Hints:
The chain is mainly α and 267 residues long. It is built from ten helices and no strands. The chain has helices at residues 6-25, 33-41, 46-70, 76-98, 102-122, 139-160, 165-176, 180-204, 210-233, 238-265. Helix 1 crosses helix 3 and helix 6 packs antiparallel against helix 7. The mean pLDDT is 84.
Amino acid sequence: MTTVSVADLMSLLxxxxxxxxxxxxxxxxxxxxxxxxxYAVGIPSTHVAIGTSAVAVAANAGVGVVLHARARTVKWPCxxxxxxxxxxxxxxxxxxxxAVDGKLLLSLFGLIMLAVGATMFLRKGSEGDPAVRLxxxxxxxxxxxxxxxxxxxGALSGFFGIGxxxxxxxxxxxxxxxxxxNAVGSSLVSVAAFAVATATSYALxxxxxxxxxxxxxxxxxxxxxxxxxxxxxxxxxxxLLARVFAVVVIxxxxxxTARGLAAFSFA
Length: 267
């Protein structure tokens, strides 16, 4: 008789939480993936946690892309240009991240969580222009912002092993003035692409726990489906949901930073 360990159960639940958040508000789940793997699942290495989280985030975001594409909320030309620019940044960021001491990397990860949480909390919603699109007439205006934001967010994604959804959503919205619902759907294309780039880099270095990654994917499929369905029903309350989640990210960021600094100080 096969028994399910606590670590396996926590892997499933962690994947479900990531998928739910990605589907519901277009990001945020991935910023919690590394802390969940370290403190809930019990992976001892920061680098393995980052590599494993990247695999799980890539798969969960891919499910989210399919679901949002069916709902016609993805603006493909903008999403693909942003993602293409970010993949190069993600590969470079992953190379840099693997070269940094794990304890220092954990401290820096906590600090980026605080920054992302503050950005999420303070960001104001906007209706945007639902008709915006990237074509020959708008390329001169939209391309520089899409490429710049994409490369920068991709580098951070690769360095910290995060999907970067809460950086991508405002990046797409600011670069194109698309509505938030379109930015959410379009952001998942980049989340998946960045995470694939990061996961590939870490997997080639043997820094992925594949059993945990598969379990997180299984939980994430159900979470993403539920999150996407809720996203349409709770569209009017997304700003409140994002702020509540921002507080969670900030609190976890304080904890992760403190743990990382303590370990780094007494090493």
